[in-house]
């Protein structure tokens, strides 16, 4: 028993030891963050950040993060780390964000940049690899962006993912895996996941690559039969996205069904199912190698956004290759803050109501005194008139 537990410990330690943390920022060393974060001077009107845990928090010091301080401004700031490639590895991007000002319109997302980004000149046109996080504007926009840069173009997630709109700290996590699956988590819970290929409609890009690398031992006749057969695997219920551009994106076809319709008794005609499967596997291998979420030279993370009403706090940034490490880091940061933060907010709200009531009473009291004097005055006058 003890031995088993000991072994478990070793395994745990090994796991932690295996995690690569590319970047981690909790703003725990006072004003020294200014040595790590570079504000852009591209526009003298860019808003300023300060370190703050806000009006309510779980822990006054630990919950300090970068807070936007000026209304109606663009913001641009970034921090560097040792460049790396996520090729063949999981990539986790995580941070916390708190819109304690009750966000009306503004960005709460992060951007991950290639290492050659010009930090001092960072602006809306600076090319990034990944944009991830909430964006709120009025009643219409309450979404989590996941934008991937691929083949010189930005690709937005086609599934819409809703973000949190309240005033509390929330934990946002994006996981991109080398098997081309992804996960978007809010507060540690997965709220969207699936295939990077389908959920960004990148299938056509892959097809382009496929046709240029067509195999020779797969003759044309078989190929057309295969295509007929493959049609059964397409999701007929899917509709063409409204922003599909045939010129850019190629001919649209529905995404592949996750479960092929074998149960309908469908049989491939004129082709050898094994050969088809073999070919399919080969393509799959080939396509997986051709990674849709592979970034060669990841080297900076930044906030480049617009806010109408300021006050958002960004904290607990993490970039790692280890999902479990990220989960534990989330628990140790957001997990510790969420409860006490809400308690403090509730106490403050009660206090505000008490004060408002007191003020109201005071006003009534004053108004009462005034009325009394008025009455006395009237009486006096009336007496005088008599
Ligand atoms: C801001 O950045 C743009 C694009 O990188 C550049 O053309 C422009 O000169 C920069 N402006 C300043 C004031 O540095």
From TrEMBL:
| Annotated InterPro entries | Calret/calnex (IPR001580), Calret/calnex_CS (IPR018124), Calreticulin (IPR009169), Calreticulin/calnexin_P_dom_sf (IPR009033), ConA-like_dom_sf (IPR013320)
Q: Which GO terms describe its biological process?
A: cell differentiation; ERAD pathway; protein folding; spermatogenesis
Gene3D superfamilies to which the protein is assigned, alphabetical: 2.60.120.200, Calreticulin/calnexin, P domain
What keywords appear on the UniProt entry?
A: Chaperone, Differentiation, Disulfide bond, Endoplasmic reticulum, Glycoprotein, Repeat, Signal, Spermatogenesis
Just give the chief location class. endoplasmic reticulum
Q: Which domain of life is it from?
A: Eukaryota
Stretch forming the signal peptide? 1-19
UniProt-annotated binding residues for an alpha-D-glucoside:
109, 111, 128, 135, 304
**Per its record, what are the GO molecular function terms?**
calcium ion binding; unfolded protein binding
GO CC annotation, single:
endoplasmic reticulum membrane
List the cysteine pairs that form cystine.
105-137
Location within or outside the cell: Endoplasmic reticulum lumen
Please state which protein family the record places this protein in: Belongs to the calreticulin family.
Q: How does it assemble?
A: Component of an EIF2 complex at least composed of CELF1/CUGBP1, CALR, CALR3, EIF2S1, EIF2S2, HSP90B1 and HSPA5.
- PANTHER family, sorted: CALRETICULIN AND CALNEXIN (PTHR11073), CALRETICULIN-3 (PTHR11073:SF3)
Name by which UniProt lists this protein: Calreticulin
Species: Trichechus manatus latirostris (Florida manatee)
């Amino acid at each position: 028993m003890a031995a088993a537990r000991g072994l478990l410990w070793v395994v745990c330690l090994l796991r932690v030891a295996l995690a690569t943390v590319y970047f981690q920022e909790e703003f725990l060393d006072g004003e020294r963050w200014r040595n790590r974060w570079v504000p852009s001077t591209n526009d003298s009107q860019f808003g300023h950040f300060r370190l703050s845990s806000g009006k309510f928090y779980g822990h006054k010091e630990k919950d300090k993060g970068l807070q936007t301080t000026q209304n109606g401004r663009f913001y641009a700031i970034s921090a560097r780390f040792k460049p790396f490639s996520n090729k063949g590895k999981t990539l986790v991007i995580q941070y916390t964000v708190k819109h304690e000002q009750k966000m009306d319109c503004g960005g709460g997302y992060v951007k991950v940049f290639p290492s050659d980004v010009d930090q001092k000149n960072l602006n809306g046109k600076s090319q990034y690899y990944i944009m991830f996080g909430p964006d709120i504007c009025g009643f219409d926009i309450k979404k989590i962006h996941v934008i991937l840069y691929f083949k010189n173009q930005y690709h937005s997630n086609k599934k819409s993912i809703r973000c949190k709109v309240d005033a509390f700290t929330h934990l946002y996590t994006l996981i991109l895996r080398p098997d081309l699956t992804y996960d978007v988590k809010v507060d540690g819970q997965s709220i969207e996941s699936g295939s990077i290929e389908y959920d960004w409609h990148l299938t056509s890009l892959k097809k382009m690559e496929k046709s240029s690398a067509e195999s020779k031992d797969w003759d044309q006749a078989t190929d057309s039969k295969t295509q007929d057969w493959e049609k059964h695997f397409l999701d007929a219920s899917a509709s063409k996205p409204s922003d599909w551009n045939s010129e850019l994106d190629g001919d649209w076809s529905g995404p592949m069904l996750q479960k092929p319709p074998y149960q309908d008794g469908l049989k491939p005609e004129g082709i050898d199912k094994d050969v088809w499967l073999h070919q399919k596997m080969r393509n799959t291998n080939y396509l997986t190698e051709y990674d849709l979420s592979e970034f060669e030279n990841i080297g900076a993370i930044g906030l480049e956004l617009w806010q109408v009403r300021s006050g958002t706090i960004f904290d607990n940034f993490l970039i790692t290759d280890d999902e479990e490490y990220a989960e534990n880091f989330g628990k140790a940061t957001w997990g510790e803050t969420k409860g006490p933060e809400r308690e403090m907010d509730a106490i403050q709200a009660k206090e505000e109501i008490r004060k408002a009531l007191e003020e109201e009473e005071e006003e009534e009291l004053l108004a009462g005194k005034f009325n009394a004097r008025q009455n006395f005055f009237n009486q006096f006058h009336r007496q005088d008139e008599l």
